[in-house]
Specification:
Elements: H1 20-29, H2 40-53, H3 57-68, H4 89-92, H5 97-125, H6 131-147
Length: about 150
């Protein structure tokens, strides 16, 4: 049978597989933890929050991604236009697109470091802050840095 444009050769798509590991993880996380008497998932959540409260930036990011959703990285100054267009020929003179892109990445890295430092400083100044206050402050700092 010859190929017909506009018609899939596999209309049913790839067959779905059972998510055996996921099913076992969900089941196990719902089990009661003998040490705490609560569900195992609760113990993991508490440990993650404790790490974030201790200043672990990775734990903080994980919480923020789960609570607020992943933040779109804005490479330019305009939140309405999240992507920086490639450099014009006049901007690119004397440098390659790769060098330009490395500069953009470096800008993003510096902004992330500034955010991390601001959040760490706030945590040092507010050691008694609750997890909710910490997440609120992290969100505020992230939004402030995106607006710059």
């Amino acid at each position: 049978m010859p190929f017909e444009p506009g018609r899939s050769g596999n209309p049913g798509g790839r067959p779905k597989r059972d998510k055996i590991i996921t099913q076992h993880l969900i089941s196990e996380l719902g089990e009661i933890d003998p040490e705490t008497g609560g569900e195992k998932i609760r113990r993991i959540v508490v440990a993650l929050i404790d790490k974030a409260m201790a200043g672990d930036v990775s734990a903080t990011r994980e919480i923020m991604d789960r609570v607020e959703g992943k933040v779109t990285t804005i490479l330019g100054n305009d939140p309405e236009s999240p992507l920086i267009p490639p450099p014009s020929p006049s901007e690119a003179r004397g440098s390659s697109t790769l060098e330009w892109l490395q500069g953009v990445i470096e800008q993003g890295r510096k902004k992330q470091e500034e955010q991390d430092a601001a959040l760490f400083k706030w945590k040092q100044e507010n050691p008694q802050a609750t997890a909710e206050q910490f997440v609120e402050q992290a969100t505020k700092i992230s939004r402030e840095h995106l607006a710059r």
